[in-house]
TrEMBL record:
Gene3D superfamilies on file: 3.40.190.80, Fructose-1,6-Bisphosphatase, subunit A, domain 1
Cofactor annotation: Mg(2+)
Organism: Lepisosteus oculatus (Spotted gar)
Protein name: Inositol-1-monophosphatase
GO MF assignments: inositol monophosphate 1-phosphatase activity; metal ion binding
Length: 307
């Protein structure tokens, strides 16, 4: 321990213990939330719309987020929060140096509505705009993905490692169409898929949840994932899960990953990630923090985008 002017400051190992306690608490909350989601999946759902006719939200999304945030606030009253449904209801999406929980209560709401079996809870925790840990619970699969900065990535306790694939022509790629249905956006999205298929990559898949998509890269089950238009709560946790499994996380232009930019490539190697960046085009989308695109200074899984 150290003292300055009579004030106690925790040493680095002590602070690391505090963040581990936060992670353990986050895992326990995610486990409880999973049970609520599984029970709700059997019932009739009230479905509402957000930004478009295919951008869905249910009462369970709101219930889970309220449960997660209220539980954390009770234990850590000085911490900050960025939650998908809170932002949709008018809360600001601002990341500060304060310990911040970044929460997607149900990633894959459309899957949840249709009982398609890929639905996840995503919880990330950032301090000084850097991610300390990530938790993704794929509820129906009962797969708990976790990562702690500098400590590796795990699925149900088994350590993860990306495939290490460096040849794009030998790669399986995951992406999503998202909720945008404007003609120019759809042309860009389908053009990107066409370009990759022409390389050719081995195949392209879409699971319906960005959090699980990126975790598949961490497991080595997929070699890359890219998307434009998702939000910070979709990928904050899974970004550190990928990098701690030895992968890379980049912007879609091949530059440094910026969580607030709504553009991401996660890959088994820098070679695969950069090749995808050379092929695909991003359509314009507003940053989560409201800043002009190109203005960064936001959380990264690791500062270099690589473990």
């Amino acid at each position: 321990m150290s003292f300055s002017s009579g004030i106690f400051f925790p040493t680095a190992p002590k602070m690391a213990d505090v963040w581990q306690d936060c992670m353990n608490f986050g895992i326990s909350i995610a486990s409880s939330a999973r049970q609520t989601i599984l029970e709700a999946s059997k019932s009739k759902k009230t479905v509402m719309l957000k930004s478009s006719p295919v951008d869905l939200v249910t009462e369970t999304d709101h219930k889970i987020e309220e449960m997660i945030i209220s539980s954390i606030k009770e234990k850590y009253p000085t911490h900050s929060f960025i939650g998908e449904e809170s932002v949709a209801s008018g809360e600001t999406c601002t990341l500060t140096d304060n310990p911040t929980w970044i929460i997607d209560p149900i990633d894959g709401t459309t899957n949840f509505v249709h009982r398609f079996p890929f639905v996840a809870i995503s919880i990330a925790f950032a301090v000084n705009k850097q991610t300390e840990f990530g938790i993704v619970y794929s509820c129906v699969e009962d797969k708990l993905y976790t990562a702690r900065k500098g400590k590796g990535s795990f699925c149900n306790g088994v350590q993860l490692q990306v495939s290490g694939q460096e040849d794009i022509t030998q790669s399986l790629v995951v992406t999503e169409i998202g909720t945008q249905r404007k003609e120019d956006v759809l042309k860009t999205l389908t053009s990107n898929i066409f370009k990759l298929l022409k390389i050719p990559v081995h195949g392209i898949r879409a699971v319906g949840t960005a959090a699980v998509d990126m975790c598949l890269v961490a497991t080595g089950g997929a070699d890359a994932y890219y998307h434009i238009g998702m939000h910070c709560w979709d990928i904050a946790a899974s970004a550190i899960i990928v990098t701690e499994a030895g992968g890379v996380v980049l912007d879609t232009d091949g530059g440094e990953f910026d969580l607030m930019s709504r553009k991401v490539i996660a890959a088994s190697s820098r070679a695969v990630g950069e090749r995808i960046a050379r092929e695909i085009e991003a359509f314009p989308c507003e940053r989560d923090d409201g800043k002009p695109q190109g203005v960064s200074g936001n959380v990264n899984g690791h500062p270099s985008g690589e473990k």
